[in-house]
Amino acid sequence: MSRAEIKSLAQAIRERRASQSFDGEPIPQDDLRKILEAGLQAPSSYNLQPWRFIVVQQPEQKRRLRGACFNQAKVEEASAVIVACGDADAWRKDLDDVINSGLRGGMSESLAAASRESIPHYFTEFNSDQMHGWLNKQVMVAFTHMLLMAEVLGYDTAPMEGFEQDKV
Q1: C-alpha–C-alpha distance, residues 42 and 158, integer Å
Q2: pLDDT tens for each residue of 8-46
Q3: CB 5 within 8 A of CB 154
Q4: How far apart are CA 5 and CA 27, in angstroms?
Q5: Which CATH number do you get for residue 145?
Q6: What is the mean pLDDT of residues 68-82?
Q7: pTM of the model
């Protein structure tokens, strides 16, 4: 689709729909960056940002991805496909960076110390289903930010659940 004028957030929320097909017109890298940054700036529990985004744009990669998505044509038609994944180990890998970032932003030493204790305790109590549920919520917040930014910029989107996770 050709990019129209930028929409207000209220307009984007009101008008956003899941598109069933796309024209494949390339998306400018600056716009793709804005969409990804919207996801990266989304709020998350403990500010852990346990999401990872994979951008698929190469025709061969989209063809292979389509095969894992029940042969849905829109996978190949889209100029870019963003695969949003949850990282169950983000709290282990990123905790120090998150706390240090908080300290630089004004977090008190006492809250940092409490977080170093409470966050690992919280997550080590999770079973696999609980972690899966938590990750789904966190990733969807970020993904929704990206969907709305794409709409603000004038791009159609389609969130997809129709795929074989192990093949993706």
Answers
A1: 19
A2: 999 999 999 999 999 989 999 999 999 999 999 999 999
A3: yes
A4: 15
A5: 3.40.109.10
A6: 96
A7: 0.90
- Residue 49 has, within 13 A of its CA and on its CB side, a CA count of 16
Domain count, the chain: 1
Which residue has tokens 């006492």? Answer: 110
Q: DSSP for 44-112, please give it.
A: -GGG---EEEEEE-SHHHHHHHHHTTTT-THHHHSS-EEEEEE-TTHHHHHHHHHHHHHHHTT--HHHH
Residue 50 belongs to domain spanning: 9-152
Cβ neighbours, 10 Å, residue 80: 18
Angle at 55 between CA 141 and CA 136, to 5 degrees: 25
Q: Write the pLDDT tens digit of every residue in 135-168.
A: 999 999 999 999 999 999 999 999 998 999 899 9
